[in-house]
Fold H(+)-exporting diphosphatase.
Amino acid sequence: MELAKLYNLSLLILGVLTVLSASGVIFLSIFGPIGKMPNTQKLNNSDLKFYSKTVYMLETISLCVLFIIAGGMMIACSFIQKDWMCLLSYMVIGLGITCAFALGTYYAITYSSFVNTKDNTLKTLSHWEDMFDCCGWVTKRPMPPCASSIGALL
């Protein structure tokens, strides 16, 4: 009987920690450094919109809501002794971990491709410069020729 109480207590603690940590990530993604990043209108309206701050925040908040639901299910499972509910909460946690791993991999690949990109490897450097409001990807050049067709050539 003591083992069942310990199991219920561990489910309660794990559920509360999951809900609190997911809520903290939501708070940080809205009010933290991500929320303060600039987001240009050109970037939102282009084919690069999947790299925008808004998309990152929506994906992060959606994933955190999934973890909050799983944590709530664990808290409920600690009080209501239903095996199917515990199994379902573990499945939702597994889905959340899988999604978090996939998003982390996606962002890592995107970040490394941006970091390793050089000016001469971009076929449409002027397009990227226009979308990100920068002049040159690695090498900074004067702004007036940057937006011209000559400015994108090295």
